[in-house]
Write a structure and sequence with these properties.
The chain has helices at about 35-40, 95-105, 145-150, 210-225, 235-245; strands spanning about 5-10, 25-30, 55-60, 65-70, 80, 85-90, 115-120, 125-130, 135-140, 165-170, 175-185, 200-205, 235, 255-260, 265-270. The longest helix is centred in the C-terminal third of the chain and has 13 residues, at about 210-225. β14 and β15 form a beta hairpin. It is elongated and about 60 Å long. The chain is of the alpha+beta class. The chain has 2 domains: about 5-45 and about 125-270, Outer membrane lipoprotein wza domain like (Outer membrane lipoprotein wza fold like), CATH 3.10.560; about 55-120, 2-Layer Sandwich (wza like fold), CATH 3.30.1950. It is a multi-pass membrane protein.
Length: about 270
């Protein structure tokens, strides 16, 4: 039996870059990312507030007034603090960050007691990009759906596709963006609702078939100022379907692979 032909698309993907370093080879097989797993990953988390990019806080150490600092979580998800240097904070709760700082400061201070006071919650924004009337940040007062975020951005532009949006969310453990296709309007009627978290990106594609290459070039330009992701973008198979105009035809396998510091390849086996 003949092996199915492979379509090879060369994609410009600066999103795979860290600020000043090359990218190691990255390969993700997203076929194992089932629809149920995708939706589960995009539902609100129970528990305390989780720190995100842009959040500002005041950190102080009891009896060490010279260590009081006002810090802001940078696009890489980290802060800089005296004595301990860079600390990864994205995805941590305040209590987890406090424990981490106390553990690292214990090398220099006897039984350090750290206080953390959040002063600004920038990560409560979501970003609506692409074919909407007013692209930009939408402030969250509660969990909202992609459809509500699009409405808050002025609704669809005349050239928008209005049955699907692409939702991007950062995974702090793997340092990647996860991407899924979220059905909108009537297509979302019988499906479990996707709920947005602070820092999520909602991308509304054009009504015409844009293709994966066009999407990657466009989303790279839009996303780079908002979030620094060290290892790239992991797309669920249905994202490729939507971009190629085959939303109801399953894709057997999708791989996103970074090959150099300046390029990436998406290998999509033909059906």
């Amino acid at each position: 039996m003949k092996a199915p032909p492979t379509v090879l698309l060369t994609l410009l993907l600066a999103l795979f870059l860290t600020a000043c370093s090359d990218v190691k080879v990255l390969e993700h097989n997203t076929a194992a990312l089932t629809p149920a797993a995708q939706v589960e990953a995009f539902h609100p988390m129970d528990g305390p507030y989780v720190l995100g990019v842009g959040d500002e806080m005041t950190i102080s150490v009891w009896t060490n007034t010279d260590l009081q600092r006002k810090v802001k979580i940078d696009p890489s998800g980290a802060i800089d603090y005296p004595l301990v240097g860079q600390v990864k904070t994205f995805g941590l709760t305040v209590d987890q960050l406090r424990a981490q700082l106390e553990g690292r400061l214990a090398k220099y201070i006897v039984e350090p007691r750290v206080d953390i006071s959040l002063t600004e919650f920038k990560s409560l924004n979501v970003y609506v990009l692409g074919e909407v009337r007013t692209s930009g940040a939408v402030s969250l007062q509660r969990y909202i759906t992609p459809q509500e975020a699009i409405a808050a951005a002025g609704g669809y532009s005349e050239s928008a596709r209005n049955d699907f949006a692409i939702i991007l969310r950062r995974d702090p453990q793997k340092d990647v963006l996860m991407g899924i296709a979220a059905p909108l309007g009537l297509r979302a009627k019988d499906q479990k609702a996707i709920v947005l978290h602070g820092g999520d990106i909602v991308y509304v594609p054009r009504s015409g078939i844009a293709g994966v290459e066009t999407f990657m070039q466009h989303i790279t330009t839009l996303v780079n100022p908002l979030v620094n992701v060290g290892r790239g973008l992991v797309m669920a198979p249905d994202v490729v379907n939507v971009l190629n105009g085959t939303a109801f035809q399953p894709v057997v396998q999708t791989q996103v692979r970074a090959t150099t510091a300046n390029s990436a390849q998406a290998i999509i086996p033909a059906q």
